[in-house]
Design brief:
Layout lengths: L6 E5 H15 L3 E4 L2 H5 L3 H11 L4 E3 L2 H9 L6 E3 L8 H6 L3 E4 L5 H11 L3 E6 L14 H10 L3 E7 L12 H14 L10 E3 L3 H6 L7 E4 L25 E6 L2 E5 L4 E2 L5 E2 L4 E6 L16 E4 L2 E6 L7 E4 L12 E8 L2 E3 L1 H8 L3 H11 L1 E5 L1
Parallel strand pairs: 1-20, 2-9, 3-4, 4-5, 5-6, 6-7, 7-8
Antiparallel strand pairs: 1-10, 10-18, 11-14, 12-13, 14-17, 15-16, 15-18, 16-17, 18-19
The structure holds pyridoxal-5'-phosphate.
């Protein structure tokens, strides 16, 4: 199969660097890299290998099948399954020694029965809704759930978790409020918890803006992939600088010059007002380069910014390279995300053009295109 002209490069050294920045920040708290969504588009297995070498304590995925993929790739660390604990996945959880996160007691008797039949003990974590308003048990249900786990054979409570809804906003009081609700719920039942029961609530925003919330473990995603949890404000100090991990490039497939007054592409949403040199790029919304980037984004050509003009279509995009110094030729590399020469386009900048957040940009680009790993 011929390679695509669109190429995602993932820098292993940037992953390592970001892990080390987070580890310094986390102090004695363990780090659980979140590698759901195929590692936020960076490739879950490859990222897990790097993070494991750097000292990750466990990995977080959404569904059990992602955990199976990690096990089949030889990853031995604990894998937490955060979403989708339905009865059908119990055998998968047991066979692959995954750690389920449960939100109510409904599934527990069956899980206990199967664990006992298989002669294993399953560690599990309980998720409390301490203010996210999404998934989890109510803090008032925590005690009965803890007791239910304790009384059922084959099950062992290994931890209790919650999730912050607004830790990306450093100035908001919400995170301290949610944190207080979580710690109060735990304090009230502390005497009922097994020894070594791990508490975790912090995500990247929690670690960076409210580090005291890291407790026993921080569950980190976006910071490990090199984006700031708050959408790109400068870090508090130099040793907190994260490095972008993903670079997305394509190649010029045609260079053409059109006169002033030429309508470009579907809907003719851009009419040239001068003699215009265009680079035609083989990238479009199929590749995650969303249509919303039409007449908004810029790309890097010869280390300079060239505006995207006209509609982004399924497989084609136009860049205005009239003001780019030097030759622009068919086959030249064009960078959509990342660095070229002295210029850089970050995931947060693209996210602003797309009216979304860096997370979505990384998932789209990374999971829709061929990835290559560099050191
Ligand atoms: C994805 C996820 C995280 C990581 O969030 P980031 O903001 O990417 O650090 C943490 N906890 C849970 C429950 C998650 O689903």
């Amino acid at each position: 199969m011929a390679p695509s002209l669109n190429r995602i490069e993932i820098s292993r050294s940037a992953l390592r660097h970001n892990f080390r920045v987070c580890r310094r920040k986390a102090g004695r708290s363990w780090i659980m890299p979140m590698i759901k969504a195929d590692g936020y588009g960076h490739g879950m297995v490859e990222c897990a290998r790097v993070f494991a070498e750097e000292g990750a304590a466990a990995f977080g995925v959404a569904e059990a099948r992602e955990g199976v993929r990690l096990r089949r790739s030889g990853i031995e660390l604990p894998v937490y399954v955060l979403v989708g604990m339905v009865p059908e996945v119990i055998p998968v959880i047991l066979v692959h020694r995954l750690t389920p996160v449960i939100v109510d007691g409904e599934i527990l008797p069956e899980m206990s029965r199967q664990a006992v039949a298989a002669g294993v003990e399953t560690e599990l974590h309980i998720k409390v809704d301490a203010g996210m308003g999404r998934q989890g048990c109510h803090p008032s249900e925590l005690l009965s759930l803890v007791r239910q786990v304790r009384e059922l054979p084959g099950l062992r409570l290994d931890g209790i978790m919650a999730h912050f809804p607004m830790a990306d906003e450093a100035a908001s009081d919400n995170t301290w409020e949610v944190f207080a609700r979580f710690t109060e719920a735990i304090t009230g039942i502390a005497h009922e918890l097994p020894p070594g029961c791990r508490l975790h609530i912090a995500n990247s925003g929690g670690l960076f803006h409210f580090s005291r919330t890291s407790l026993d473990m921080a569950r980190l995603g976006i910071a490990l992939y090199g984006c700031s949890p708050d959408g790109g404000r400068p870090p508090a100090s130099d040793d907190e600088i994260l490095r972008p991990v993903m670079r997305f490039s394509t190649r010029v497939i045609q260079v053409r010059t059109v006169p002033a007054g030429t309508g470009l592409g579907y809907g003719q949403t851009f009419i040239t007002d001068r003699l215009t040199r265009l680079a035609v790029l083989p990238v479009g919304y199929e590749d995650g380069y969303l249509r919303r980037l039409s007449n908004r984004a810029a790309v890097l050509v010869n280390g300079r910014r060239a505006p995207v003009v006209g509609r982004v279509s399924m497989n084609l995009t136009l860049a205005d390279v009239t003001d780019i110094p030097g030759e622009v030729r068919r086959g030249d590399e064009v960078v959509l995300l990342g660095r070229q020469g002295d210029e850089m386009i970050g995931a947060d900048e693209i996210a602003a053009w797309m009216e979304t957040i860096s997370y979505e940009v990384l998932c789209l680009f990374g999971n829709l295109n061929d990835r290559f790993y560099v050191d």
